[in-house]
Specification:
heterodimer, A: alpha/beta, 6-stranded mixed sheet, 4-stranded antiparallel sheet, B: about 375 residues, 5-stranded mixed sheet, 15 helices, 5 strands
């Protein structure tokens, strides 16, 4: 049963579990990915994202749970799946002594049908490096080649595990553009990331993962608005303004601390800031690095886990 | 099939671009051959000691003897034919010259009227090409002198060469098949290093996310190594033959079968190492630990017979002992330390054991 109609989800995961020794790497994960969307697994290192993705790719066997990709039961028929998916591992794995075009041609030989190397080199902007051995590529070029290798068989589903980790901002943005162009070609993409911005820019829907579990899933807008009607007012914490005084400011609904900053979630930004300035004036100090922000995924993550998501 | 071919080509390219691998598999064995070859085939002029067997006992045969005696650097040792050949097999004589009965009569009749030349039998060892060539040169010169004195019209006496296998190979003849065995061993054992490196770099993991089957991956590695083994064999045998005159006098099919079986056995040993080495550094260390005892205790550089008892019993446990012994027997007619069938059987058994161990313990990720 591999046929799937347009309405069926391309990826179905139910109650997935995988334990290594004492560690529950994946602890009851479930989600669905629809055709043509970019779905993100967002979470810190060690959250279980990579283990989850590698089970979906047929590289690891789950202890229990159901995984269907393109209607194929992955645990039972991993080989049937491999012709139809594209994979970029977290660490770009390449033959160091082969050139870009040689690696592409090699991977093309593994599939009954494939896109031409020239086309992939164009798409991933690797033209200048086509005859360079992969060990001499920069981090960004390496990642682009890893994505090119994931596309050689023109797959229906593409798995990208931390595709931009370690890249500079320009290289990251260029890779985002490539991923978006894949969506516009109707491909389904599952990516993992620990960058909030990447998840916000790319993902149609995402799931926040921590300690092997999915804490919450939905669109970025859903995740944020479901949790926060407020905006946040941040400033460097001031001695003498403890939480009890801050909580009494007009509009403030909750307070958090992060890296020496106080964060006030408020429904009435002008009233809260007015009260803050009056209070700090009264203490004879200045509220430094004062900023107002609409809540972001960052705030959602902080609220869900009690800690910030950092590189 | 296309994947297998492409992967094999990719492996060969990676190999050719790896200077360390090239050094160990091609340059290193050649250095040994050139080194030992030039030391032991040195250009001094050792005395030519020939066995002298006279079945004729005529004045003409005595005359022939004195003609040999008069030649510079030639010494003759009188003996019966069986004794002389036995001494030659042991390596005490370079050649044996046999004057057949009827020699004197034949010379007398040729002195009257020219006719079919008569013969003198010369035993030499064709695997020792330079010695054989030297012997034939000396003998031909002496016989030509006899012919000339008789009539001056064409040859009256010609040598009739006969091959005999001597036990005491020249050292170069000994070292060439031994070095080939060593090179094949290293080629196989070193297969562990790129394999572990590919696993460490997650290349094997990336490949398992493609439709490529594992037998294709292993198959392409084995094919590449066998191709290199053939190149090594040609280069080593070629250098031995052209630079030092070591002739392959044995059965080429048996030599080929040993090269292939030996390579497979040691590639399998490489996979065993790769099954237990977690990192490329560990694989490097383990290949050294494995290859050096094999290199020095398997009779590569000196015969196993010459080893003290306890080393000899270790040598009997090492698979390279059987490969090198088999190669010496089949390539240059070296004396058998083991029966040839046992060499094949031990290598085949070793291959099966290594295959089973790596099938059980090898990890792809």
């Amino acid at each position: 049963m591999t046929a799937n109609s347009a309405t069926d989800p391309v990826i179905v995961v139910r109650d997935l579990r995988k334990t290594y020794g004492q560690t529950r790497a994946v602890d009851g994960v479930g989600f669905e990915v629809r055709a043509g969307e970019i779905f993100g697994l967002l979470g810190p290192n060690g959250a279980g994202k990579t283990t989850t993705v590698e089970i979906l790719e047929g590289l690891r066997k789950p202890d229990s749970g159901e995984v269907r990709v393109l209607g194929i039961d992955v645990a039972r028929h991993p080989d049937a799946l491999k012709e139809r998916i594209g994979v970029a591992l977290q660490t770009a794995a390449l033959y160091p002594k082969l050139t870009v075009v040689e690696v592409l041609d090699l991977f093309r030989s593994f599939y009954p049908r494939s896109r031409s190397s020239a086309e992939l080199i164009d798409l991933l902007e690797l033209g200048e490096k086509r005859s360079t051995q992969t060990k001499a590529l920069s981090g960004g070029q390496r990642q682009r080649l890893a994505v090119a290798l994931a596309l050689v068989n023109d797959p229906e589903v593409i798995f990208l595990d931390e595709p931009t980790t370690g890249l500079d901002p320009a290289a990251r943005r260029s890779l985002w553009a490539i991923v978006e162009s894949l969506r516009s070609r109707g491909r389904t993409i599952l990516l993992t990331t620990h960058y909030m911005e990447e998840a916000e820019v790319l993902c149609d829907r995402l799931a926040i993962m921590d300690h092997g579990r999915i804490l919450e899933a939905g669109t970025v807008h859903d995740l944020v608005s479901r949790r926060f009607k407020e905006r946040s007012v941040r400033f460097e914490a001031i001695d003498g303004l403890d939480d009890s005084r801050l909580a009494a400011f007009p509009g403030v609904s909750s307070i958090k601390h992060e890296d020496g900053e106080a964060i006030l979630y408020t429904r009435d930004v002008p009233a809260t800031i007015g009260a803050l300035l009056a209070a700090s004036d009264g203490l004879g100090v200045e509220a430094r690095n004062l900023a107002v922000r609409a809540p972001t995924l960052e705030d959602v993550f902080l609220d869900l886990t009690g800690r910030a998501l950092r590189d | 099939m296309r994947a297998l071919v492409q992967l094999t080509i990719a492996n060969i390219k990676s190999f050719l671009r790896d200077r360390a691998a090239l050094f160990w598999t091609v340059a290193f064995p050649l250095v040994f051959i050139l080194l030992f070859g030039s030391i032991f085939s040195g250009g001094d002029d050792p005395p030519r000691l020939y066995g002298w067997v006279d079945h004729d006992r005529s004045p003409q045969s005595a005359q022939l003897r004195s003609a040999f005696d008069a030649t510079a650097n030639v010494d003759l040792a009188d003996a019966s034919e069986p004794d002389a050949l036995e001494q030659m097999r042991k390596g005490d004589l370079r050649a044996v010259i046999v004057v057949p009965s009827g020699y004197g009569a034949a010379i007398d009749s040729l002195a009257g009227a020219p006719g079919e030349p008569t013969t003198v039998v010369v035993y030499s060892d064709p695997t020792q090409a330079s010695v054989t060539a030297d012997t034939m040169q000396v003998v031909t010169a002496v016989l030509d002198g006899v012919s000339l004195a008789l009539s001056g019209r064409g040859p009256a006496v010609v040598p009739e060469p006969r091959a005999i296998q001597t036990q005491d190979l020249g050292f170069v003849s000994y070292i060439v098949p031994s070095i080939l065995g060593m090179a094949l061993m290293q080629l196989g054992v070193f297969s562990a290093i790129p394999l572990v490196a590919d696993r460490e770099k997650l290349i094997l993991k990336r490949l398992s996310a493609t439709p490529l089957r594992r037998w294709q991956l292993v198959g392409s590695n084995v094919i590449m190594r066998l191709l290199i083994a053939i190149v090594q064999t040609v280069v080593i045998v070629g250098v031995g033959a052209f630079a030092f005159g070591v002739q392959i006098a044995g059965n080429l099919v048996l030599v080929g079968a040993l090269v292939v079986l030996g390579s497979l056995a040691f590639i399998a040993l490489g996979y065993v190492i790769a099954s237990f080495a977690k990192t490329e550094d560990a694989a490097n260390g383990m290949t050294s630990v494995v290859q050096f005892p094999l290199m020095f205790l398997s009779g590569t550089f000196f015969p196993i017979e010459a080893m003290p008892d306890f080393l000899r019993s270790i040598a009997l446990l090492l698979p390279l002992t059987y490969l090198s012994d088999g190669l010496r027997q089949t390539m240059v007619g070296g004396a058998a330390f083991m029966p040839l069938w046992l060499c094949f059987a031990v290598l085949a058994g070793f291959l099966v054991i290594c295959f089973a161990i790596s099938a059980r313990f090898f990890r792809w990720q």
